[in-house]
Amino acid sequence: MTFASLGLFEPLLKTLTSLNYQTPTPLQLQSIPAILGNQDLIATAQTGTGKTAGFALPILQRLTLAGAPVSANSVRALILVPTRELAEQVHRSIQTYGQNLPLRSLAVYGGVSINPQMMGLRKGVDVLVATPGRLLDLHRQNAVRFRQLDILVLDEADRMLDLGFSSELNELIAVLPKQRQTLLFSATFSQRLERLAVQVSRAPQRIAVSTRNAAASTIAQWLVPVDRKRKTELFLHLLKDRQWGQVLAFVNTRKGAEQLVQAVQAIGISVETIHGDKRQPTRLRALERFKAGEIQVLIATSVAARGLDIEDLPLVVNIDLPLTAADYVHRIGRTGRAGAAGEAVSLVSADEVSQLAAIESLLGEVLTRHEEPHFIAEHRLPVTTADGLIRKKPKKPKKPKIPRQEAQPSPSAPEATSAARSRIHLGDWFTDAPGTEPKPAAPPSKAAKPAPARRPPRS
To answer: What angle do CA 246, 273, 116 make, to 5 degrees?
Structure first.
């Protein structure tokens, strides 16, 4: 099967030939004809299977053949993405695929000045790639209008929901034209995404070209149990001992990213970091240096779990396990792309066993464990199963209680002991125990004096 057989026209075929795109991926084989046919679509596929080309190529062709000029501040096709990095990546792909077409495109996202983006929208754009928050800001300032919108794409829609964009998506969808083509593309699928699909699309065609929510089979995955306090030390050890080349390492916090950068720099290895506190130009510069091979280690938070397209990246390391299992799939999906081999290593501490169980349940397999001799964990990582269960160690049996034996009465005082057992002490007085004969009251210690006789009155 070729791209020409999918119905793509000559200008796009010429571009694909120059890019050495020869055979469509399974996703593209199904998505391109459906989009050219004006069909709503929900497509689920593993990361690195050509999703961007799967929707970009037919959209560019439809916009070109429609030929309608775009009005000022208007948009004909809108692609919503969750992160700045993904917005830049998708926009670059749009520019590459449409290099021989008379179309204008623009990417807008937060973290940079809004004024150049407002200027770019003045003449109108055929394809706008945007993050939800910044797009709402532009719409509220009347910098963008949607009257000409024909196509809406939600790329990595599940991630947008994970990042809390539900209200922004609802607000945007409310102002979009009802008559439009809607396309949802994602590497994972969830019930929340199903509800969103029902809300925004009309009788969509569904495509799932691989096992739902699974990682690419070309990625070798394994983990090393380790105490949390020794994770950085273990990472530095593996970096040198295994002579790793380029490494993309993920942590969960910005503070953790900066601390790890300092530790890597201390052993003389070139390193950069990407996280939410970094300005967008700084993040892009770090990514470009990493792609160019100028730095060996790139440390990132989950902001980079999607949207980083790094050719031939050999290794991803999870210093911290992500909070959601879907993010694990996207993190390790930065390697093993387009059928290439890759490796994903996770450093897992005992307090992350719940996250590990969720990841293995999503993958449907138990990750192989490799103990590192000098880093044996004091807090042992519990055993997990492929169905997400955590096997707890059996409790030690309790020792049987030995009943206390009552003291035997002294043979010299049997009567005193028997009397003592029959009395119950209640405060400052005694009563006889039930079933015993009452005892006569003790006589008073002193006899009572008779009252003096009264004298008769005097006459």
So the answer is: 120
The answer to whether 203 touches 167, Cβ cutoff 8 Å, is: no
Length of the chain: 459
Whether domain 219-391 has CATH 3.30.1540.10: no
pLDDT of residue 420: 46
Task: Tell me yes or no: is domain 4-208 CATH 3.40.50.300.
Answer: yes
User: What pLDDT score was predicted for residue 83?
Assistant: 85
At residue 68, φ and ψ (nearest 5 deg) are -70, 130
Q: Which residues of the chain have pLDDT under 70?
A: 46-48, 188, 210-214, 303-309, 338-339, 392-459
Alpha carbon 346 to chain centroid, angstroms: 15
CA triplet 147, 7, 14: central angle to 5 degrees?
95
Model's pTM, two decimal places?
0.61
**Distance (Å, rounded) from C-alpha 15 to C-alpha 1?**
18
Q: Which residue has the tokens 């989950």?
A: 302
- Residue range 207-264, pLDDT digits in tens: 887 655 567 778 899 999 999 999 999 999 999 999 999 999 999 988 899 999 999 9
Secondary structure E strands in 211-270: 219-225, 247-250
Q: Measure the CA–CA gap between 146 and 128, rounded to whole angstroms.
A: 11
Beta bridge partners of 432: 423
Among the listed residues 6, 17, 98, the one whose alpha carbon sits nearest the alpha carbon of residue 52:
98
Q: Which tens digit of pLDDT belongs to each residue from 168-178? A: 888 999 999 99
8 A C-beta contact, residue 59 and residue 31: no
SS3 112: coil
pLDDT at 90: 92
Of the candidates 172, 170, 93, 81, the one whose C-alpha atom is nearest the C-alpha of residue 129 is 81
Domain span(s) for CATH 3.40.50.300 in the chain: 4-208, 219-391
Distance separating alpha carbons of residues 210 and 140, to the nearest angstrom = 40
Angle value at C-alpha 373, between 241 and 361, nearest 5 degrees: 95
Report the pLDDT value the prediction gives residue 221, as an integer from 0 to 100.
94
**Residue indicated by tokens 């949607």:** 146
* Residue 177: predicted pLDDT: 93
The CA distance from 146 to 74, in Å, is: 6
- Dihedral angle of Cα 322, 326, 327, 331, to the nearest 10 degrees: 110
The torsion region of residue 20 among left (phi > 0), alpha (psi -120 to 50) and beta comes to left
